[in-house]
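I am writing to request your help with a piece of structural work I have in hand. The matter concerns a single protein, recorded as an amino acid sequence and a row of backbone structure tokens. Could you please explain, in whatever detail you think fit, how the structure tokens follow from the sequence? Thank you for your consideration; the sequence and its tokens are set out here:
>
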Amino acid sequence: MTNEVPVSERRACGLVGGHRSSLRYQSRRRTGSELLQRLRELAQEHPRWGYRLLGDVLRLHGINVNHKRLYRIYKAEGLRLPRRRPRRGPRPRAIPLQTADRPNQQVSLDFVSDSFSNGRRFRCLTLIDEYTRESPTLVAATSFSGKRVTRILDELAATRGYPEVLRLDNGPEFTSAALHCWARQNHVRLHFIDPGKPTQNAFIERFNGTFRDECLNAHWFIDLADARREIEAWRHACNKARPHSSLGRIPPAVYIHRLATRCGNRGNRCAISTVPTALRRLRHSH
């Protein structure tokens, strides 16, 4: 008997022109979570393998999947790589980043351009800690290279330590061999956003908008020395006096100080970067 009306299964199937075997059929298809997880692992392990090679390896491990279905999943997950090789440095498949849960875990980098009063152009290397929203440095110069970027990062590491992840765009300074070698030597992961997708680097893009509105557009810079003085003064004010909405309407420096005070009261002799639980509790308290 059916659930809705008192008609037998045989009679109901006859009325709609269906088969009883179709009504009773239960899919024996393997769930997609296991296939998807294994496909992601293999794609990260072998970044230059296509979906057919990955499918062969899956079958060797006992996961049989139709090549058309495998290609649909492979394409939907964005695992395809461009055929043309990049000119500077390798660009492996990017592992999706999770939200940072401690300072110096994920740092975003970008460049902002402006000009002096005489029309000569200069650039600023901007950095921001994605968790504390602190800007560790703002470097202005007429030109940058990959080696210069590594020197700036080494200077920061002397006081802050090396970050776990750097979120970058695909500019020539970031895709250079110098930065890739530096990252390998210091065990820093480089996470490149997709070309033409600045929203994937939203933290630094938001910071750059504030930097341009409140500093670059508010001054006429005479020369590089004048620009560096004004930019550094603005950075200190941004870190120590400018409230940030994501931190509970307090400046980054105050946020870090409250965290350090809380850890000190508990008698913890650990660095700020090793207490993610206390950080989460402090953030939720605001």
Summary: The radius of gyration is 27 Å.
